[in-house]
Fold these 3 entries.
Entry 1:
Amino acid sequence: MSAPRREPWKWYAPLVLPFVATLWVPFYNRAEPSLAGVPFFYWYLFLWIVLCAALIGVIYFATREKRGA
Amino acid sequence: MNVPAAIVFFLLFGVVTVLGFVAARWRRGDLDQLHEWGLGGRRFGTLVTWFLLGGDLYTAYTFIAVPALVYGAGAIGFFAVPFTIIAYPIFFVVTPRLWSVSHARGYITGADFVRGRFQSPLLALAIALTGILATMPYIALQLVGIQVVVAALGIEGQGWMAEAPLVIAFVILAAYTYNSGLRAPAMIAVVKDVVIYVTVIAAVIVIPMQLGGFAKIFAAVPPQKLLLAPAQTSTFVTLAFGSACALTLYPHATTGILSSSGRRTIRRNAAILPAYSFLLGIIALFGYMAIAAHVGDAPEFARGFQQYGANYAVPALFLRSFPSWFVGVAFAAIGIGALVPAAIMSIAAANLFTRNIYREYLRPRCTDKEEASMAKIVSLVVKLGALVFIVFLPQKYAIQLQLLGGVWILQTFPAIILGLYTRWLHRGGLLAGWAAGMSVGTWMCGTTGFKSTTFALKLGALSLPGYAALWALITNLVVAIAATLVLDALGMARGEDETKPEDYFSESA
């Protein structure tokens, strides 16, 4: 067993973004600009599903724990 | 009866039943060991874990209830989307630690971890009871999903026969769960999710085409439903945040997480599980499609709505939009979708009872084999309880208890999630906080007659409506901190921590 690794916490800081983006409701609780008839409120949230997943993916690769390291 | 739909439905149900029994031989392990039966031997890789957790966290009931809420109440029902967005950053950071420490110390439940971390069987008992209490009504609600689609297929009986399809489905489910343990829902989840994805992709293409596009669908929704009213904002935010914090605390989530083969599996899944959130978002939109399709005014659906309320909106939408045989596929997705989480939940409850109550208090000297057989029996009892609940009591009790379950499960946050990072809180403080949170949360829901989990917090002249679970958690934390200061000042023993710092990073062999 190696000594506990300190996780590079700086890499995890961007994970605050999805919280701010989706919990700050007044920012997106509006109909315009709509996208192909879909009000902003809805397509904005769908967009953040993708963005948040991508963000986690990037951080996963950046902090990848090598097997046996 | 809708014959082609029923044939397809039963065919798919049959396939899944066979799979459930065959699963016992998959990645064969000694099913007389609890970690083999109840955690699939901790061997599931990235893809199987994705299917398993996807089928586990996004239950059939969610797929009925979220669009039902959107259909009835509009934008507020969309809280499920931010909820399932922010759940994953939490999942990504927290669950690898839980996996590692459980792997290093042989824990199979969250309560196991709490016991080891704080040397407190009593606190572990509180955590285990909370988990069991929160899970039972959740299993019962999965049955509602089956009930609604069986009714929508037009299968009816008189008297006791009315519940026969439900009873048969559950006997089958109980038998293969007993036989194969977690391997059964893991294997079935693959089929179930493929069917769900096919259904949802077909629906999101076909239905808007029939209704004249998304612009027409949104135009059909009353404007006051389309966006959040100012008074709804705090409810929306606290529901999303509170639910996201609670997600990984549910015993069935813990079971799914601990069954994976390693930290990397879990971390990868945090990035790929949001595919299901996208699916959930589309399914939520089915609520608006149902409004645009005027299913509520159609005489042929009047009985269904009368009996199941807004929960009938999605089945009615499918019946109206799809050819009969595809209705069978779609309903099978919901029906099978109920079996996977129901199986995992019953296994999770069985693990909790066996490990943290039976072995701890009733038979400390039981062998591993006795432990595993007890868990198998408990999984049967739990499902029987859920079945009795749904057949003999009004459905609204199950719904109300499940809502309360969400409030209760969040009260295990300080012991489990904070516990993964720090032992600053005293075990006695955690217990006091838990008791306070449970009481306050239950009382808040009680003030609404248990109809809602929204409670208006009065701060002077300001009234802040929000998710009772979160208000209760704040109470919980305040009490836990205060009690910790007092207990430490009195010099009360803190107990030993059996975990080591490196345990929280351990990787599979």
Entry 2:
Amino acid sequence: MEAIIPEIFLATAGLVLLVLGVLRGNQYTQSMCHAVTIFFSLTLLFLLWINWDYTLLFNDMFVMDRFAGVMKLLILVGLITSLALSSNYLIQENIIRFEYPILMLFAGVGMLLMVSAHNFLSLYMALELQSLALYVLAAIQRNHIRSSEAGIKYFVLGALASGILLFGISLVYGYAGTLDFTVLANTLRVESAPLGVVVGMVFIISGLAFKISAVPFHMWTPDVYQGVPTSVTAFFAIVPKVAAMGLLIRVLFEPFGSMISDWQQVIYVIAMGSMLVGAFAALVQNNIKRLIAYSSIGNMGYALMGIVAGTEQGVGAVIFYMMLYMVMTAGVFGIILMMRRGEMAVEDIKDLAGLSRTQPMMAYGFAILLFSMMGIPPLAGFFGKFLVFKAAIDQGFIVLAVVGVLTSVVAAYYYLRMIKIMFFDEASDEFDKDVSFAIRTVVTVSALFVLFFILAPELIINMGQNAASILFMR
Amino acid sequence: MEDSHIPLLSLMTFLPLVGAMFIFLIRDKEEFVTRNAKFAALYTSIFTFALSVYMLGTFDGSSAEFQFVEKYTWLESMGISYHMGVDGISLFFVMLSTFLTPICIIASWKSVKTRVKEFMMAFLVLETFMIGTFCALDAVLFYVFFEGVLLPMFLIIGVWGGPRRVYSAFKFFLYTLLGSVLMLVALLALYFDAGTTDIPTLMENPVARDLQMWLWLAFFASFAVKMPMWPVHTWLPDAHVEAPTAGSVILAGVLLKMGGYGFLRFSLPMFPEASEHFADMVMWLSVIAIIYTSLIALVQEDMKKLIAYSSVAHMGYVTLGIFTATTQGIEGGIFQMISHGIVSAALFLCVGVVYDRLHSREIGRYGGLVVNMPKYATVFMVLMLGSVGLPGTSGFVGEFLTLLGAYQVNTTVALFATTGVILGAAYMLLLYKRMIFGEQKHKDAAEMKDIGRRETFYFVPLVLLVLILGIFPGMVMNKVSPSVERLVTRYDMALETAGINQNDDLENAGETQ
């Protein structure tokens, strides 16, 4: 039972806080944020304390293994980071609602369960727990028209994706007669998959592709990213992507592990589409949140390249890529949250003009993060791309890799554009200087991580490889 | 593995980076920061140069092996190590980097007025990447340094450059990146094929013929852009014109050499069959570069553009020499790169001198400088003759050897390439005539002061080197030869085992005569 302690603890804590919140009202929002941060940290400790060996619980509904462990570690770190980015912003934008941290907490519970799902039923429940919390978070600024619009868009499209996913699951159930991952895997290993299962799998992939905002299910991303409050955008960009990617990996390699040739082509197309759309569509964006939305679409494309490879090394590369993506995105959103002038958030990239003169440290930090996202060595982002490209090339996916590197050159253009605005253009007004300690820390840590990663790359790369190896042992 | 007790190469490579960090930490009033940053950068780069002189002194010139080798585990699980070393081919490129950096710093002592601290930091970081590129003996490590160069250079052009600096910086960055990423794919394919990224091992690893062709093309994409070869040279004039003087110096002096170095380190030894297959194409491209860009140089009105186009032409001799795959050709190519590194760097400094005074690069605005700038005229003359390739200057040796190599392989190509020498003389002499002699058209030109102490300080070693290398080329060649000979021997052996008769070319050449 100990394998599920972190989730049980976090869910219980959430319920208690919810009751407290209802009784006490909104004036304790700040303390609520702190409490949730503490609970996340405690959950993290529980996670590190429990055994990560392969365990199945609740009639094989729930699985704990090294892969789940590493993904949960990432999710929790992401949760703590995004809450740290949020707390000050909530006051600044007057979003004083105690539900905010609690919704984040429940989304967190959903995500932790997602990467541990071992049955399509528990997968769906975990995914919906997460999604419902996210829908509400998207619309939390309910008296703002943009936020409400984004919330509705996210909800309608998300519900559609869930429907597609559920339809796929029911097809698989109908043709294979089971929802359990291991049983499904064993069945599919012995006999070739019936057509219904293949179709069902494609539907499942489509539903999950929506969650990681991969092309062609990416349409919601720019609008939602732009519309919702920035702290929520940061959260959306950092954590659910990691969880959904973990879920996708688990589904593709466990139940459908023997159908690799069937799903490989699907993921191939999705990966290539994401890279192309991410690179070209971002070229014309001027709103920084929208730009980062397209950049994240492109990044998902690169990460999926590792899945296409279908090897242990490839999956390790994906996990590693997601780690780096998380760190860099957190840093970038820290910067975006710093972009405030006269108590108002500004979002146009032109607002960064001449930043290197007015606030040099911020400009350096942002430049390092952007160069890293471009994949320029010696920064960390290069190694992320290096590993996924390597995995793809080792499996002979040369065309995909070439498209990948070429789109990364296209993407370099819009990253460079931001650097150009910061370093080459004439200075405009300064940003507000009262930046919270938490945001400063997040930006500093992520910039330093990216900069000094090269000194000891093994540590983190091996973490990804270890997590991946467990999926290939069985 | 001798000399492994002092990590000399790592010291040289990372000392500038330490210097940059130190400058980063300087906090004080603006003027103190500026002063301290300049001196810190100067001392660091001079000390690095001193280390490289020590390296040159202790380098065993009779050996073709890699020396001062360092090898530490880095990415152990993937077999990628931190492996550094120099041989005769890379030795002088390292020297060139360490030699030109302090000169650049002195040259920008007064001309860089804004954000001096950042400028000095960018230059030191650039030096680290440059030295690292030439010392790296692991392909991934090489790539990290090779590509890392883009970061400081992009900022140097973009922040301290001229009016069209943004366009030029973007063009420089994206062109080079496009070439490099294709090389990355090829590198990964090579890694998969050979199971290692260790350069000395890769050099002995035979690659299947079909794969060689693809890999060669991908590496070529990167190095040809860096070189730059016709028709992918268009970024260079733009970058040169907009870059600050020191940026142009380092761009012409060192960054262009990375392409030639890459050919020698990767293309020839790792893909000999493909190199032989594509050699004719490269040689013709080189000839086109030599003639075409020389003609363009003839009609330039902008001094920097003229020298930039002349660089493309001179680099044409380098690729020509390298792909003859003869000892003379390759040695000539290397010598030409070293010579061009000094001559063109010095020529850009010359442009910088007059630009600092009159803020114009238009040739037509000058004239008659010999009247009030005799010292300048002398320096310019030596350098101009070096660029033309007059016997007795360093430029002659390189051109002569490459042409010698070319004649052995393909007479037609050599014939056309030789005309470039005449064109080279034409545009350089014309430039000299229009700037130094004639009437003083511009009234400000009459008031320009001759070169001062600081400027003399960096011109003297450059001019002396041009002459010394021209008179005693053996000083360089002795150390280069063993490595080149080994390269050529291995190349020929690889072709022999592959059943390609290299003499085909010779016979064909004989028939066409």
Entry 3:
Amino acid sequence: MTVKTPIYLDYSATTPIDPRVAEKMIPYLTEHFGNPASRSHVFGWAAEKAVETAREEVAKLVNADPREIIWTSGATESNNLAIKGAANFYSGKGKHIITVMTEHKAVIDPVRELERLGFEATFLQPEPNGLVDVEKFRAAIRPDTVLASVMLVNNEIGVIQDIESIGNICRENGVIFHVDAAQATGKVAIDLEKLPVDLMSFSAHKTYGPKGIGALYVRRKPRVRLEAQMHGGGHERGLRSGTLATHQIVGMGEAFRIAREEMDFEIARIRRLRDKLLTGLQEIEEVYVNGDLKQRVPHNLNISFNYVEGESLIMAVKDIAVSSGSACTSASLEPSYVLRALGRSDELAHSSIRFSIGRFTTEEEIDYTVSLMKSKIGKLRELSPLWEMYQEGIDLSTVEWAAH
Amino acid sequence: MISNDVYFDHNATTALDKSVLEAMLPYMEQQHGNPTSRHSFGRQARKAVEQAREQVAAAVNAHPTQVIFTSGGTEANNLAIIGISSSYGISQIITSAIEHPCVTRPALAMKHRGWKLSMLPVDSSGVVETHALEALLETETSVVSVMLANNETGALQPVAELAEIARRFRTILHTDAVQALGKVKVDFAELNVQAMTLSSHKVNGPQGAGALILDKRIDIQPVIHGGGQEKGLRSGTENVAAIVGFGYACTLLDSRVMGYDKDVRLMQQRLEQGLRQLGAVIFSAGAERLPNTTFFSFKEIDGETLVMALDRKGFAVASGSACSSDSSEPSSVLLAMGVEYDLAKGAVRVSLGLQNHMEQVDDFLASLELELNRLRQLTAIAV
């Protein structure tokens, strides 16, 4: 078995650009270089046409009207625009926002910023399986609630929230509902004609498109309004100014077209790989899957390895590129706030690994990963006094540690 | 088909340099890591972003730690205006009457939130009147923003002088250098400003990348919140390929500026000589200007009609800036200069680039003359 290492199992952090996407992008970096806002010549028109075709492709994947798609520089900007834009626009109706403790930083931080500016926020704690209890969500609604933001697929644990039920509650209560779907496109079917969602954020680089481009869905019927966050030339109907990066937009359109056409087949293939990985890893003692296994995308497997120290674990498995916590927070040594919100101990949160499987993952890579994990976990535990105590049957929670 | 057309709209966007594409391709085809990831894929992406940061800094004589990457010039200007003024608190924002909308609009947004907005006037050749700044600075001011070169007229602005006045009042000066970069020398340290906006796609780099060059002592709040990239000032996964392209394009700026100073300037001179012979009014003619930008008008000829006619002849020019060429209103820059409404409405902008050559200028002048005659005859019949 020959496998090229390091093996990339971090598709939730970012995906490679699909070669078909890159091929579509390159002409817009060379001969079709016009500014889509140039209305006076053919260079501009060619670029504008490409931008509109891509808008249709993005709309099609989620069954929306192309006019409901606003280009941004990425999901972070989409989340900022949705949350700050809607909260500010509707602030006359109230200043309360509901979100969830396990949201991405690109949702949590804009909400925190709004708190600083006089809004109030409720951060719901999910159940231990990572899912939001719909009744607890209902109970959090106040007369002055104007906005709720709940992600479709969690970036760290891959669980799928019940967006439809949460959205219905929002509708009943006149609350604008935003959904961060950065991790969802190409992994779960999204039908915005049916889903009671007002605003939805998308990213290209999590779905085999380029970095630096994303979109925000803004519902037309009933119409949702936003206060622009980026001001200037009035592009994107005034909601997002700035020259459109044509080649990136073309790339996102093509990436979303491929996702639409190949999603069913790809999900089935990835599910088989995930099941293989899970079965293999479960042969190791004292492992815990984080997040619900059923209501979850198959692309994600987040597992805690008990009695192993987190940092040394990451060092030991250098042959596989995985992440401990989300990429955006993994620069810090704090245990994952998502896992802590599920009630995981710091130790288990620290020794967690997120395996995320994607389009280019092979069965051989999964086999290699399983055998690597088995041998490395074994070695690390041989060195671990905690593991030894556990095997001797000592209940570690009753041990009183001496202070140094 | 497109390649046969003559592109005279380099202030709107520029074609990607082939060597820039070469630099970018590995980051589109093989190196796909997220710079925030700690594994080798992530570290390679991080290294590429940091190298680009050094390249951008070196091109404008700044320190790499002063470079904040953004999605483009618009975002960098928004960050400068909104970020600095909101960090300071309620105060005055001063800008000029000829700024790009991505400076004036965020300033207006702050005005709606309670900030005071004041505009520096320009003289008839489109140059900001420096003497007006001192009086305005008597009011507590968070940021002054004046562009280095105007995108429509190409007129260079006395930014270093304004920065010196602002410093005396301990006020921050930001300059939008998007149109100046790569056409004339841009030196952050020499200008002595505290903040400066750059854009990649105006200097043969890709669309989707820009930067705010910022004196680190400046208090500023982010506009986009999230994962905390760019030292918390600009969250969101870095656009690695575009940043790499921007960085590489910046390494080509010295020779680019030399080319503009020599070859492009000669074409501009020939163009303007021909235009004058045809009876054109050239705006900001008396000002020191970018060597590639000529903004002109013919009495009684509608600019939009002329631009469309020229497009049919295969010349891509603009009627004002790309970002506002949606609207049929005359250029606000020209109105601020005191140009009369009808003449302003006829304005056409030619912005040359290194890919152009002298024969194209001559062909353009010949086509223009034919079109002018045709349009004048039509007008005569209509009257």
